[in-house]
Amino acid sequence: MKKMILPLTFFFTTALTATGATASDALVTPESISYAQVQSVQGAETYTYVKCWYRPSTTHDDVATTWKWALDENGDYFTLPGYWYSSVSFKNMFYTDIPQSEIKARCDSTVGMSHETADMTYFAADTRMSYNHSVWTNDKTAKSGHINKIISFGDSISDTGNLYNGSQWIFPNRNSWFLGHFSNGFVWTEYLAEAKDLPLYTWAVGGAAGTTKYVALSGIHDQVDSYLTYMKMAKNYNPQNSLFTIEFGLNDFVNYNRSVSDVSNDFDRALKKLIANGANNIVVLNLPDATKAPQFKYSDPEEAKVIKAKITAFNQFVAQEVMLFRMQGVNITLYDTSTLFENLTKDPAQYGFRNAQDACMNINRSSSFDYLISHSLTNDCASYGSDSYVFWGVTHPTTQAHKVIAEQVEQSVFKYFNFK
């Protein structure tokens, strides 16, 4: 949803060259991985440590985070046995048989923070300088009969740190955005996972569109390919046991001026590939009217009209697409984010907000460079608190707004899925 401007091309190219992203990274596809490669990766047993990240502050107004190494019950470093997806790429994941509940318990015990705003999360890391890598817990058996994890695709609304890792922890700035999130705390998928006590695995990338625009900004189809590639290395994985969430399209219309037909083709192609590879439980979010975000105070009104028309047309296509797949027997459900967002901005008080027109942070323009620097809060937001605002910056929702989205999704569509 953010306004991308030309100099960011240089920024992303420079940052990703430094991280060691190469053409070979981009060329890895699920089809190109052999059985021997899978056996080699799964057989490279090692161990790693766990970084427990948390917010010391008891308010969402303060996004500052810190971390501690997870400790075991004896006070020694807690170690995870398992194997890495890769020994060289910054795009990485650690696979283990240790349950997520045990890892979380070790972090809870180590951190010792019980306040609701701590937003504790954890990652695999070999050293202090390691990036934050997801920990995948292998299933004990491929047959469980119920959903045991959530997997998300999309853009900055669902990104929990992928672009942050890809930009060497530069984008977005940690002084104003919560640890790689385009918000001041957890995003909606994290609240969903928390509500169901399930692990969340995120392939969503801030700034992503239907197609890949820069090395780090994986388009929706490349996100699906990446997921399929990583799942080749997971033991006993059955996609029937995963709930998939998909949302994308705003960047295509707001930032890249793409056509509705092109973005619709991207959506159709990605969804078909996901379903062809076993995905059966899917939640799709349609697009909110982004022109109601504060950033459009600084945009051309005529441009806003064009974008709004594209969003409306795309949402009509998405509704038809979901209906088509449902008729084919796929357990796919559409959540109407558009109507929720309309209600949020028209009558914020019914959801506990007092401001749905302004940014909580003191930003008075629409520029991607604002994600590289720190910002203070407006006097009003500092007085009433960020939880009273719908928007954190000029584009993205506050974590409280994300919580409302998650609650509405859970109440509306979770009844269609088989949770334990």
TrEMBL record:
Keywords: Signal
Keyword field contains Signal: yes
Entry's Gene Ontology molecular function annotations: hydrolase activity, acting on ester bonds
Cleaved signal peptide residues: 1-23
TM annotation in the entry: none
Keyword Signal among UniProt keywords: yes
InterPro entries per UniProt: GDSL, SGNH_hydro_sf
Family: Belongs to the 'GDSL' lipolytic enzyme family.
Name of this protein: Thermolabile hemolysin
Organism encoding this protein: Photobacterium swingsii
